[in-house]
Amino acid sequence: MAPSEDGGEPGADGEPRVVEGERRPVDGRRGRVDGEPGSPDPGSRDDLRDFTVDVFTAGEMTHEVFRTGDGPSVVVLPELPGLTPAVAGLARRLRADGFSVAVPSLFGIPGRPVSLAYAAASIPRVCVRREFAAFAARADRPVASYVRALARDAHERAGGPGVGVVGLCFTGGFALAAAAEPSVLAPVASQPSVPFPVGGRRKRDLCMSDIEADEVAERTQREGLCLMGLRFTADRAVPAERFDALSDRFGGAFRRIETPSGPGTSISRTAHSVLGEHYVDEPGHPTRRAYEEVVDFLRQRLLS
């Protein structure tokens, strides 16, 4: 049987089959990537050697998890097409700021940089997967249950009052839905784009099911839970209507960080990834300020 692109043998559904509890070294485990069509120079790959990797299973879902750092736990969910160098860079910044970080590889090839060919091949394949329900409104997504289980595991490992979850782009809304889990104290949705905003109903979707929204709303009232969302103002993939709907549902518990972009600003109207691919690590840059607000939010919630 031929190996899958994620390094294991494919199961009946075409997804990689891994063994619960299995641990694999990172170095050398993605040897096929360099020869794939459209892949960039192999020197631009992130080898992720400063992460440990294990396998985490919850329900019917099993994924590799890349871990690094010490301190309060933050789960970082990768953006499409996967755990790219930009996502790894975010994990390293959080590590440097005093957090332990767990990054599940939900799709794609860990360490592989973004390219047009890689993204074009990944997006349709991921969007049709049942656990992500990319087009469904008010959906109860299986991946949200997986993220909640991973958050519980991260809390058990690190202790403390609770954990943060940072979702990016395709996974942004999963971070909000994760807040139905009591151990999640700091959910952060950076440019939450699922469900894709096609039509007015999806533009105002809360990125979670009605049951999850009720549980999160109850926590905001009972525990003072807060949620954070980030977006570029000109980003059509994350329309203002979505943030308006989140504000309507959760009131002041939803904290909006909206970075001006487009004409008259220093940021392109096509910019999308506030903390990932379009992040600029320079003092005073708007994305750097947005990141600093995220860090402050995590510290306030996880170090109290």
| Helix amount | 25-40%
Number of strands: 10
User: What's the arrangement of strands in the largest beta sheet?
Assistant: 3-4-6-5-7-8-9-10
Gyration radius, rounded: 18 Å
Unreliable stretches (pLDDT < 50, length at least 5) are 1-43
- Terminal residue distance: 51 Å
SSE string:
EEEEEHEHHEHEHHEHEH
What composes the largest sheet? 8 strands, mixed
Kindly state the mean pLDDT as a whole number? 86
* Approximate strand percentage: 15-25%
Please tell me what the overall shape is: globular
Helix-strand makeup class: alpha/beta
If helices are DSSP runs of H or I spanning 4 or more residues, what is the number of helices? 8
Summarize the structure in words.
With 304 residues, this protein is an alpha/beta fold. 30% of the residues lie in helices and 18% in strands. The chain contains eight helices and ten strands. It has an eight-stranded mixed sheet with strand order 3-4-6-5-7-8-9-10, with helices on both faces. Helix 4 (172-177) links the parallel strand 7 (163-168) and strand 8. The longest helix is centred in the middle third of the chain and has 17 residues, at 142-158. The relative contact order is 0.11. Mean pLDDT is 86; it is low at 1-43.
Summarize the helices and strands and which ones pair or pack.
Layout (H helix, E strand, L loop, with lengths): L8 E2 L5 E2 L34 E7 L2 E8 L4 E5 L7 H12 L3 E5 L11 H12 L14 H17 L4 E6 L3 H6 L6 E7 L9 H4 L6 H13 L4 E6 L7 H11 L3 E6 L26 H17 L2
Parallel strand pairs: 5-6, 5-7, 7-8, 8-9, 9-10
Antiparallel strand pairs: 1-2, 3-4, 4-6
